[in-house]
TrEMBL record:
GO terms for cellular component: chloroplast thylakoid membrane. The keyword Transmembrane helix applies. It is a multi-pass membrane protein. Coiled coil: none annotated. This is Cyanobacterial aminoacyl-tRNA synthetase CAAD domain-containing protein. It comes from the Eukaryota. Keywords: Membrane, Transmembrane, Transmembrane helix. It is found in: Membrane. Residues 84-167 form the Cyanobacterial aminoacyl-tRNA synthetase CAAD domain. It comes from Linum tenue. PANTHER family: PROTEIN CURVATURE THYLAKOID 1A, CHLOROPLASTIC, PTHR33222. The chain crosses the membrane at residues 98-119.
Length: 169
C-alpha cells in the first residue's frame, strides 16, 4: 500500500534526479591536481650505465666536500658569558633605574605589538600605513642619502646624538 501511495513522489524524485544529472558532469571535469605523464621509455636512453655511475660518484664526492666540521673556535663558553654579565651588573651603580628602564622597554614592546595588531585588523588601514612608510622612506633617501653633503650632515647628527646619549656632551 505504501508503494501504491507514493508513486508520484518516486516519479518526481526520478525526474528531479534526471534534471540534476546534467549539471554534475561539469563539476566532475574539474581536477584538483594531476601529475604530468612521462614520455614512453625508448630503447635508447640518453644516459648510459657508465654516465649514471659517474653521476652517482660525483654526487658522492660533492657530499663529502660539503660536510661541515666542528671546531673549538665556534664553541660558546656559557660560564664565561655569565661571569661577564655578573661583572657588568656589579659595576652598575643604579640598579633600580636599570630595572625600571628594562621593564618599561618590555611593556612598551608589548603595548606596541598590541597596537600593531589592532591597526592590522582594520581593513584599509594597513595599506595606508604601508604607503605612509614608503613615502617616508622615499623622503629620507632623498633628504639624507642621495647627496654627499646631506650624508655628512646625517653623520654629524648621529654623532651628536651618540654624545648626548653617552653624556659626553
Amino acid at each position: 500500500m505504501a508503494a501504491t501511495m507514493y508513486p508520484a513522489a518516486a516519479t518526481a524524485a526520478s525526474s528531479t534526479t534526471s534534471f540534476l544529472l546534467p549539471a554534475i558532469p561539469a563539476v566532475r571535469t574539474v581536477r584538483c591536481s594531476r601529475l604530468p605523464l612521462l614520455p614512453p621509455r625508448s630503447s635508447s636512453s640518453r644516459f648510459s650505465p657508465a654516465s649514471l655511475k659517474a653521476l652517482s660518484e660525483s654526487s658522492r664526492v660533492s657530499l663529502l666536500q660539503t660536510r661541515a666540521t666542528s671546531s673549538d673556535e665556534s664553541s660558546v663558553d656559557t660560564s664565561e658569558i655569565f661571569t661577564d654579565l655578573k661583572e657588568k651588573w656589579d659595576a652598575v651603580e643604579n640598579k633600580s633605574t636599570v630595572l625600571v628602564y628594562g621593564g618599561g622597554a618590555i611593556v612598551a614592546v608589548w603595548l606596541s605589538s598590541i597596537l600593531v595588531g589592532a591597526i592590522n585588523s582594520v581593513p584599509l588601514l594597513p595599506k595606508i600605513m604601508e604607503l605612509v612608510g614608503l613615502g617616508y622612506t622615499g623622503w629620507f633617501v632623498y633628504r639624507y642619502l642621495l647627496f654627499k653633503q646631506s650624508r655628512k650632515e646625517l653623520a654629524t647628527d648621529i654623532e651628536t646624538l651618540k654624545k648626548k646619549i653617552a653624556g659626553t656632551e
